[in-house]
């Protein structure tokens, strides 16, 4: 039985459960349930605080977990667990911020105090940047209030829309410390059977979300130029048509590029250009 950790609340919880459900796994219905057994798929899901998931997977108690890249790097369990796949949701930057106009670069933090809930991540980054004389102040949350209340000169926190910072009269400065998203982590070393299957399924969900299926007809002599526009994942499927001067082409395309590709194909001479969604796939 594969044992998998899923965030029980917070920014990643709903999207993680939705993705697992889309991949065909049974998820809990009641927020109070701590464990859910999906017998048919041979997986047991444990609903845990996202911050703790790295600890469970890193110590070898659980096989796989979904957490945030920033939380994983903050937990300092890299020796026991590793990031195996980005999941394309829960995207946010981890950034320095301070009251508007106070700082413009990280180097100016010399001798200052920086409040954060991610002190492992911040301390290591400060070391890498050779900013040895910056004091890290640990807070559990709502760090945006730390400067106003006098316990820090700047903060390092998760920034998604930037609305929380703005409301606190603050702005980011310097380069982002890191870019985070939801990730799958696995314990290092031998992987039990079943891990590749769950990862293939989640990859299928990701691809089905990010790609669309494009069909079109094109005169044979333009096929090479059309194929260059829609190379597909492996290569496009080419089928004969009753009219021997034409062929039908079928290819997966990134959803974000679809309208531009349809315009380009039409201008090239393609006709009957159809787009359909991909319900599920295995790549
Ligand atoms: N708008 C957001 N706010 C907070 N975290 C976000 C946001 N968008 C994505 N995330 C990600 O979600 C994870 C944090 O989740 P969560 O908010 O549940 O943790 P937490 O702040 O430690 O918990 P809590 O706020 O319940 O004490 C991080 O990986 C973070 O990058
Ligand atoms: O850029 P935004 O879209 O405004 O989102 C970022 C904010 O959301 C998170 O707080 P959360 O709600 O997790 O509260 P917390 O600080 O108590 O953890 C994070 O710590 C920021 O404060
Ligand atoms: Mg939070």
From TrEMBL:
Q: What does this protein do?
A: Catalyzes the condensation of ATP and 5-phosphoribose 1-diphosphate to form N'-(5'-phosphoribosyl)-ATP (PR-ATP). Has a crucial role in the pathway because the rate of histidine biosynthesis seems to be controlled primarily by regulation of HisG enzymatic activity.
**Names of required cofactors:** Mg(2+)
- Report which reactions are catalysed by this protein: 1-(5-phospho-beta-D-ribosyl)-ATP + diphosphate = 5-phospho-alpha-D-ribose 1-diphosphate + ATP
Describe how its activity is regulated: Feedback inhibited by histidine.
In its UniProt entry, the species of origin is given as: Nesterenkonia aerolata
The organism's superkingdom is given as: Bacteria
Q: What is its EC number?
A: 2.4.2.17
Q: Which residues form the signal peptide?
A: none
Q: Where in the cell is it found?
A: Cytoplasm
Where does the Histidine biosynthesis HisG C-terminal domain start and stop, copy by copy?
A: 208-279
Pfam families reported in the protein's UniProt record? HisG, HisG_C
Question: Which SUPFAM superfamilies does this one have?
Answer: GlnB-like, Periplasmic binding protein-like II
Its pathway, per UniProt, is: Amino-acid biosynthesis; L-histidine biosynthesis; L-histidine from 5-phospho-alpha-D-ribose 1-diphosphate: step 1/9
Q: Which InterPro entries match?
A: ATP-PRT_HisG_long, ATP_PRibTrfase_cat, ATP_PRibTrfase_CS, ATP_PRibTrfase_HisG, HisG_C, N-reg_PII-like_a/b, N-reg_PII/ATP_PRibTrfase_C
The ATP phosphoribosyltransferase catalytic domain is annotated at 49-204
- Read off the PROSITE patterns from this record: ATP_P_PHORIBOSYLTR
Keyword Transmembrane set for record: no
Name used for this protein in its record:
ATP phosphoribosyltransferase
């Amino acid at each position: 039985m594969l044992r998998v950790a899923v965030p029980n609340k917070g920014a990643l919880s709903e999207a993680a459960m939705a993705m697992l459900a889309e991949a065909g796994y049974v998820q809990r219905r009641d927020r109070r349930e701590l464990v859910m057994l999906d017998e048919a798929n041979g997986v047991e899901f444990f609903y845990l605080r996202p911050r703790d998931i790295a600890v469970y997977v890193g110590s070898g108690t659980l096989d796989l977990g979904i957490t945030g890249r920033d939380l994983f790097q903050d937990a300092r369990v890299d020796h026991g667990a590793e990031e195996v796949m980005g999941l394309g949701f829960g995207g946010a930057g981890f950034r320095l911020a301070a009251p508007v106009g106070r700082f413009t670069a990280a180097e100016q933090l010399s001798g200052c105090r920086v409040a954060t809930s991610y002190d492992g991540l911040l301390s290591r980054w400060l070391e890498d940047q050779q900013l040895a004389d910056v004091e890290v102040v640990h807070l559990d949350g709502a760090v945006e209030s730390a400067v106003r209340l006098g316990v820090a000169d700047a903060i390092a926190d998760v920034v998604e829309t930037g609305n929380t910072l703005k409301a606190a009269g603050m702005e980011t400065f310097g380069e982002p410390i890191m870019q985070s998203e939801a990730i799958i982590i696995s314990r290092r070393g031998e992987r039990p059977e079943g891990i590749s299957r769950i990862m293939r399924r989640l990859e299928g969900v990701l691809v089905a979300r990010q790609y669309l299926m494009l069909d079109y007809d094109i005169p044979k002599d333009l096929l090479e130029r059309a194929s260059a526009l829609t190379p597909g994942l492996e290569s496009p499927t080419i089928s004969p048509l009753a009219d021997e001067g034409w062929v039908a082409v079928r290819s997966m395309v990134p959803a974000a590029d679809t309208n531009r590709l349809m315009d380009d194909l039409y201008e090239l001479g393609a006709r009957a250009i159809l787009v359909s969604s991909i319900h599920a796939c295995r790549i």
